[in-house]
TrEMBL record:
Residues 150-356 form the Alpha/beta hydrolase fold-3 domain. SUPFAM superfamilies: alpha/beta-Hydrolases (SSF53474). Residues 1-25 form the signal peptide. GO terms for molecular function: hydrolase activity. PANTHER family: AB HYDROLASE SUPERFAMILY PROTEIN C4A8.06C, ALPHA_BETA HYDROLASE FOLD-3 DOMAIN-CONTAINING PROTEIN-RELATED. This is Alpha/beta hydrolase. It comes from Hymenobacter nitidus. Residues 35-61 are annotated as: Disordered. Keywords: Hydrolase, Signal.
Amino acid sequence: MTLSFFAAHPAWLAAALFTASLGLASCGGSASEQATETTTTTETTAATAAASKPVKPAGAAPAWAPNIAPEMQTIIEKLASLQGPTPPETLTPAQVRKAPSATDATMAVMKDFSIPVPPSPLDTMSREVAPGVKARIYVPKGATGPLPVVVYYHGGGWVIANLDTYDPSVRALAEQTNAIFVSVAYRQAPEHKFPTAHNDSFAAYQWVLKNAASIKGDSKRVAVAGESAGGNLAAAVCMMARDKGVMQPKHQLLVYPIADYSMNTPSYQHNAQAKPLSKPFMGWFFKHYLRTPADGDSPLISLVKAPDVKGLAPATVITAGIDPLMSEGKAYADKLQAAGVAVKYQNYDNVTHEFFGMGAVVPQAKEAQALAAGELKNALK
């Protein structure tokens, strides 16, 4: 986030400073660029020490989600107030990258309702895992290893967001699994078109297999995980590993993955105007990442059209009911299961895309994180 944005939004500056004081990352941090970084534990402020208040939305449920959970609606309302009325699909990638994210809205809601933030028992460091590709590595404090490793790919439609935007998801999973997480900053579009993000993601996975010991990890216990575009990348890495004769991950965690270019599924029709991801916004992501519409038919993009998914890693697939991507996530889970792949599928009805990292506010997110962490732990024993 730029200084010009903060100058224009003094209230948001206060919120950002508040969350920064808690050691949380917001969308514009640059910690991942440092050679080495260590998470520090700070004492909670008087505001966070105070008892939290029930999270309640200010207005009525939106027409596009009459049954939305109240905590989810509160975050959506906060996001709308931070972003303003301009639809993101009418902006440039540079402009959308500077805009507040769902993570920023969650942090602001935590401040508004005095929700405390516990210190994180994780250390972090940065590594280059491929030419031009860095990763932030989360290691449980005091770890002696070797620990299992999860290679994580963030969302953002292959165009926006960064390691900080999805930091809450990674921390929640790392803390609950006691595993090392390698969060990959793959190169993004439109500067780097398909299949760059996919190739970077596979290269990062290979780096972990070869270098796990250097980060206190066990190269024989490696899984992949991701949200949205990152869920697509995690699934694609499994396909690429199988096809290239590389060790298959022990598990793949796919949280509302992009799995179908058609944008004509039942959930696209029902949730066309949903927030923070709508059908027009998803089309914007495809436009910027794909070289031509023909790329959309690649099995690396349209996972549901892959000719063969046999031999892929066991999967946990999580979807959100108020999300254009819900139907394709379920369809891919069904496709894997039909091919003999062990699958745990769970949909959370009353929440939207991006809910997974909101465990501090949204109860369904906390449930989803616990489910995902449990499946990862079982697979990485």
